[in-house]
Amino acid sequence: MLEVLDFGAGQEEYYIDTGAVYQRSDAFLAVFSITDKDSFDSLSKFRDKIIQARDAQTTEGSDTKNVSMVLCGNKCDLVAQREVTAAAGSELAKSWSCPFIETSAKERINVDEAFTELVRELRKYGVPKEDKKAKKNKRCITM
Known about the structure:
This protein has 143 residues and is of the alpha/beta class.
């Protein structure tokens, strides 16, 4: 069961405690527009917030850098308007140790693949074992 929260386009302000949301989440789909360099540049800030929130709840010996995440460059159908290269996306994903995929929500290119890859990442790092009540609050985040 996936619950998707969209923090894009400044919507993060509508969530009272994003730190708590980041702590409770198992996986993150970090989406930027290949036609908007600012959206690409802002992702590092979100990832830093995720790492910081997860560090705050981490028990000794846990590695918060290993977060289930997929980096998505959306609007790959708008090639003529591209501001972010595929190489830049790949490089950022490599530095975060996560997969990179280019998608187009409009043309439905690689959308299913992005979520499939996110589930693969989730399985790679595993879902922490918890009681059933706590598990209800787990989320998958789209930024």
